[in-house]
Amino acid sequence: MSRYAGHVQIVTTVHEGEKRGVTITAACSVSDNPAMVLACVNASNPKNAVFEKSGRFALNTLAADQIDLANAFSGRNPALTSEERFAMGNWQELVTGAPVLKDALAAFDCRLVEFKVMATHMVLIGEVLGVSFGEHKPALLYMDRGYRTL
């Protein structure tokens, strides 16, 4: 799978005041009518259970100049608290209340419509209720265990 290039995104949610964000590359469009997206998060991390509990998530598409955010939310620095990670970005709320990155290339604010555990990952399927677009910039990709740009 390291040879499979993926667009780097941060999937976020909030539940009862607890914010959660995770860097992922497993995400895609599912449907345009209604607009739906899919995101996968690691099921072995108990903190990711909040994605199902909250019933909402935002999929934030990163640009090439957002590597620091990608690293912060990837868990590469476990000493960073959730508050410190979120403090590195400029966030807003659209419809669901999930944290949306203001300068993401594109951000999709979603209501969770389906949740399923498949082997090692939780699959989140969300109906897009809000969208925001940042500045048009080169995209951030991940391939061969390193960041690339397009």
Question: What secondary-structure arrangement, pairings included, does this model have?
Answer:
Blueprint: E1 6-7, E2 9-15, E3 18-24, E4 27-32, E5 35-42, H1 50-54, E6 56-61, H2 67-74, H3 82-87, E7 91-92, E8 100-101, E9 106-118, E10 121-133, E11 140-143, E12 146-149
Antiparallel strand pairs: 1-11, 2-3, 2-6, 4-5, 5-10, 6-9, 7-8, 9-10, 11-12
The helix/strand series, from N terminus to C terminus, equals: EEEEEHEHHEEEEEE
Low-confidence stretches: none
Tally of separate helices: 3
What distance separates the N and C termini? 19 Å
Radius of gyration: 14 Å
Rounded mean pLDDT score: 95
Query: Hey, roughly how much beta strand do the residues contain?
Result: over 45%
Helix content: 10-25%
Strand runs, count: 12
Structural descriptors:
150 residues, mainly beta, 7-stranded antiparallel beta sheet, 3 helices, 3-stranded antiparallel beta sheet, 49% strand
Account of the 3D structure:
- It is a single chain.
- The chain is mostly beta strands and 150 residues long.
- 13% of the residues lie in helices and 49% in strands.
- The protein contains three helices and twelve strands; from the N terminus they run E-E-E-E-E-H-E-H-H-E-E-E-E-E-E.
- A seven-stranded antiparallel sheet has the order 3-2-6-9-10-5-4. Strands 1-11-12 form a three-stranded antiparallel sheet, with no helix packed on it. It has a two-stranded antiparallel sheet with strand order 7-8.
- A hairpin with a 7-residue loop joins strand 7 and strand 8 (100-101).
- The longest helix is centred in the middle third of the chain and has 8 residues, at 67-74.
- 35% of the residues are buried.
- The mean pLDDT is 95.
